[in-house]
Automatic annotation (TrEMBL):
Keyword Cell membrane: yes
Lineage of source species: Bacteria, Pseudomonadati, Pseudomonadota, Betaproteobacteria, Burkholderiales
Name this protein carries in UniProt: Amino acid/amide ABC transporter ATP-binding protein 1, HAAT family
Originating organism: Giesbergeria anulus
Listed Gene3D superfamilies: P-loop containing nucleotide triphosphate hydrolases
Coiled-coil regions, chain positions: none
GO biological process: D-alanine transmembrane transport; L-alanine transport; L-isoleucine import across plasma membrane; L-valine import across plasma membrane
GO CC entries: plasma membrane
Annotated CDD domains: ABC_Mj1267_LivG_branched (cd03219)
SUPFAM superfamilies recorded: P-loop containing nucleoside triphosphate hydrolases
Amino acid sequence: MISLLEARHITKRFGGLQALSEVSLTIRKGEIYGLIGPNGAGKTTFFNVLTGAYTPDGGELVFNGTELPVGSPDQIVAAGIARTFQNIRLFREMTALENVMTGHHIRTRANLFSILWQTRAARMEEDLITERAYELLKYVGIERFADTLARNLSYGDQRRLEIARALATEPQLLALDEPAAGMNATETARLRELVQTIRHDGMTVLLIEHDVKLVMGLCDRIAVLDFGTKIAEDVPAAVQQNEAVITAYLGRPSHPPAAAADTGASV
């Protein structure tokens, strides 16, 4: 398969804390790639480096064969990477439709003059954006809430709205930061179906998630971080049996994969 994203020796420090140490990984086009690890492993730090929120202290990110700018979220979105957030970040006093429409701004062509004077081209583009936003609400299954304020949506529907807004930027890589956090079993099952649909329709997905069962059942390949270092990268079945991964999660080695389930944890 063709590589879409290559992270090469990514390093990030916060004062004396080494949050990421020489992390390298490759995400292939069309796959669902999982990134997991215990709390404090560096998952969100990597996510923030990838999406421009943090500037790395070393290494490079290559996307579609071109090095990504660092510390520039708008340029990274323009390059084709969109993200959601661990803590939902919606415009709470805007409707669901308006929230999705904001995601299109990176792809709009109308300039300030045409918008202020409401030229025919600007009006036509606005109509197309509105139509596309509604299609995305339908795609994630919440079109009936198009005119509902974001703050009045259920938690699960807010998560879906955030995904729709990210898709509005027309990304090639959709990066989801713990999308199942706080969801009940039914919401998680619906999320899994949505992510599978997104991949089926040609999108590449990077998934950070604490729900290890969801990751193992959804991802094609998984990388595991521990204390800012990549300790494993493989298909789910192999990762589950990796001694370094088991130790990172359980604090001790364990040979039978079933042993994780006996303790109430799974890897």
